[in-house]
Amino acid sequence: MSESDSQVGDRIHAIIERVEQIESELKELNEAKKEIFAEAKGDGFDVKILKEIIKLRKQEQAERDERDMLLDTYMRAMEAAEKTARKAA
To answer: Region 3-17: what's the mean pLDDT?
Structure first.
């Protein structure tokens, strides 16, 4: 094996070790997140709602406004269709 091959091998090994370290850290962080949600649930909070808030906070205000507008539009359309169906019945 040439010195160049050894350097390449060392570089590959270093990359793999870094990725494995990050994967280990991610696993630990995910476990910590689960513990936080379990604590919140124990305090009587709805975890699904907390996760929804986290999701919404990641969005830009314009994105949230558009989502809310579409949700409202679709809900009104469904309500109108239901009223029409009831009248026809």
So the answer is: 92
Q: How many domains does the chain have?
A: 1
Q: Is residue 75 situated within a structural domain?
A: no
Give me the domain span that covers residue 14. 1-44
Q: CA–CA separation, 54 vs 35, rounded Å?
A: 16
> What does the block give as tokens for 3?
């010195």
What is the DSSP annotation of 21-84? HHHHHHHHHHHHHHHHHHHHHHTT--HHHHHHHHHHHHS-HHHHHHHHHHHHHHHHHHHHHHHH
Q: Any residues with CB less than 8 A from the CB of 4 and at least 6 apart, and which?
A: none
Q: Tell whether the model's pLDDT for residue 1 goes beyond 70.
A: no
- Look up residue 1 and give its two tokens: 């094996």
pTM above 0.90, yes or no: no
Q: Is residue 37 part of a domain?
A: yes
Tell whether 67 is covered by a domain. no
